[in-house]
């Protein structure tokens, strides 16, 4: 089996193993808290129903009204500012789910818009990431030259360190701003920035969703959009380095296999469907029981039998 196939199979096994480990850890960390919250909510529901004498049907209606009114706390979601924010989450595949189209035309346009916008966004962020990596390489070479280092070239490890540091600073700075504007804890803000820039976008924490921020805080809206676009470009630079490393490893394996195949072919001679290797063994391309004389091997007229018996015979030449 080729090394590329072994690598692919290993990656599949490792990925599913990683999924199983993640499921076990999340189960251990979250399931108990989930059950506790469910019990607390049920107790609160019972208290509210007894206090206000609300029927089950009325309570379900009230739940629906509360849930559907939540997005409107940020103001009008589909005015230009909110629509631009929504389009950004579609193009970047973040998909918070804070606002979704309710009309058939809006849903249809979202699908068409995503089919064109997502590839466009991926190419754009990849291109920006490449430029960031190139700029980082120039800076690294300049710093090494000023420090009179023997090797002034920027290695992959150097680039990874620089881009990782830049990504960390971006998340740290964004978290400080969101913690101030949204009233979140700093850890929750870091969590939000990470979930956003990795395009996971759970939607449990979404910026610009309170106090009519979309219409009353244009400077904050501008900051949030710039943070998302700039941060995604930095993350794309990091991903480019990792993908490049994996592609390089795969290419090296392919070249190594090709070189080994060429060496094996260089030590073999093909004769009418049969291959005589350098050590004298015969790999027959015919599986029949009949023998045919293919060629003369030397001056003694030794012939090769092409059947799978692999026998050699000598013919006496009568002058």
Task: Describe the overall structure.
With 319 residues, this protein is mainly alpha-helical. It has three domains: 54 residues; 190 residues, Helix Hairpins, CATH 1.10.287.70; 47 residues, no CATH class. It is built from eight helices and six strands; from the N terminus they run ααααααααββββββ. α4 crosses α5 and α4 crosses α8. It is extended. The chain starts with a helix and ends in a 5-residue tail after the last strand. The C terminus is likely disordered. It is a multi-pass membrane protein.
Question: How do the strands and helices of this protein lay out in sequence?
Answer:
Layout: H1 3-52, H2 56-69, H3 80-91, H4 104-146, H5 156-182, H6 186-197, H7 213-216, H8 218-266, E1 268-271, E2 274-277, E3 282-283, E4 293-296, E5 302-305, E6 312-314
InterPro entries: 2pore_dom_K_chnl (IPR003280), 2pore_dom_K_chnl_TASK (IPR003092), K_chnl_dom (IPR013099)
Protein name: Two pore potassium channel protein sup-9
Family: Belongs to the two pore domain potassium channel (TC 1.A.1.8) family.
């Amino acid at each position: 089996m080729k090394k590329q196939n072994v690598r692919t199979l290993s990656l599949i096994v490792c990925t599913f193993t990683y999924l199983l480990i993640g499921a076990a850890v999340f189960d251990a960390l979250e399931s108990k808290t989930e059950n506790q919250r469910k019990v607390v909510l049920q107790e609160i529901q019972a208290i509210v129903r007894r206090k206000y004498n609300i029927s089950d049907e009325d309570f379900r209606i009230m739940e629906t009204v509360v849930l559907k009114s939540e997005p409107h706390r940020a103001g009008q979601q589909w005015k230009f500012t909110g629509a631009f924010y929504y389009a950004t989450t579609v193009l970047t595949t973040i998909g918070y789910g804070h606002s979704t189209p309710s009309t058939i035309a809006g849903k249809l346009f979202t699908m068409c818009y995503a089919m064109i916008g997502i590839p466009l966004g991926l190419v754009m962020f990849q291109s920006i990431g490449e430029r960031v990596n190139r700029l980082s390489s120039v800076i690294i070479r300049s710093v090494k030259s000023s420090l009179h280092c023997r090797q002034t070239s920027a290695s992959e490890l150097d680039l990874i360190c620089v881009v990782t540091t830049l990504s960390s600073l971006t998340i740290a700075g964004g978290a400080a701003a969101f913690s101030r504007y949204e009233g979140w804890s700093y850890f929750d803000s870091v969590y939000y920035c990470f979930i956003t820039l990795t395009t996971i976008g759970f939607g449990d924490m979404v910026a610009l969703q309170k106090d009519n921020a979309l219409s009353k805080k244009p400077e904050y809206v501008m900051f949030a959009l710039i943070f998302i676009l700039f941060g995604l470009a930095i993350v794309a630079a990091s991903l480019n380095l990792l993908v490049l490393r994996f592609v390089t490893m795969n290419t090296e394996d392919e070249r190594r296999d090709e070189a080994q195949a060429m060496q094996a072919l260089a030590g073999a001679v093909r004769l009418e469907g049969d291959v005589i290797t350098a050590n004298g063994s015969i790999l027959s391309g015919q599986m029949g029981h009949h023998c045919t004389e293919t060629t003369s091997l030397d001056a003694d007229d030794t012939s090769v039998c092409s059947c799978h018996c692999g026998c050699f015979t000598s013919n006496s030449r009568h002058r």
